[in-house]
């Protein structure tokens, strides 16, 4: 269980077993969150609270990571100021700044302009 955080819901929660992995502190939407070394960014965000992972930029519908292996692109998220990163393919690092994406991110924000 992540310290100081609510479980996302009964369907997605950390298995209650002794976890000896080191803790890693990151920032998710401006909030300090403690997770475990080796957690993916997608898992850390889903465990952090029960809000939607992201919103569809056209319809505004709530979206969640689906495949957790780099295929579906449902886990796009901003990491350290770089938009459209696949959260399921990145592991948390100390001090990482993670922000949920609420709309389409222009390429300029990815440092490609
Ligand atoms: S959850 Fe499918 S690509 Fe990340």
Written overview of the protein:
The chain has 1 helix and 7 strands, in the order E-E-H-E-E-E-E-E. By secondary structure, the chain is mainly β. The protein has a domain at 23-99: Ubiquitin-like (UB roll). The chain has a 5-stranded mixed β-sheet, with helices on one face. A two-stranded antiparallel sheet has the order 3-4. Strand 3 and strand 4 (62-63) form a beta hairpin. The longest helix has 8 residues, at 41-48. It is globular and about 40 Å long. The model is unreliable at 1-10 (pLDDT under 50). FE2/S2 (inorganic) cluster binds next to loops.
Shape: globular
Largest sheet: 5 strands, mixed
Bound ions, cofactors and other small molecules, one mention each: FE2/S2 (inorganic) cluster
Count of distinct strands: 7
Give helix and strand order, one letter per element, not per position: EEHEEEEE
- CATH-defined topology of the domain at 23-99: Ubiquitin-like (UB roll)
Percent strand equals: 15-25%
What is the terminal-to-terminal distance? 41 Å
CATH architecture identity of the domain at 23-99: Roll
| Fourth-tier CATH superfamily name of the domain at 23-99 | Beta-grasp domain
Could you tell me the mean pLDDT?
Answer: 84
In which range does the helix fraction lie? Answer: under 10%
Q: From the alpha-carbon coordinates, what is the Rg to the nearest angstrom?
A: 14 Å
Briefly note the structural class of the backbone. mainly beta
Major sheet strand order: 2-1-7-5-6
What is the CATH first-level class name of the domain at 23-99? Alpha Beta
């Amino acid at each position: 269980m992540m310290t100081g955080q609510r479980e996302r819901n009964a369907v997605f929660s950390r298995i209650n077993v002794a976890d000896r992995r080191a803790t890693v502190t990151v920032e998710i939407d401006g909030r300090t969150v403690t997770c475990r070394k080796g957690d993916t960014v997608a898992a850390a965000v889903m465990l952090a609270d029960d809000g939607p992972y992201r919103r569809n930029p056209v319809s505004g519908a709530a979206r969640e990571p689906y495949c957790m292996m780099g295929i579906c692109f449902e886990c796009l998220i901003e990491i350290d100021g770089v938009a459209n990163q696949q959260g399921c393919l990145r592991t948390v690092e100390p001090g990482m700044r993670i922000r949920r994406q609420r709309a389409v991110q222009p390429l300029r924000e990815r440092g490609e302009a």
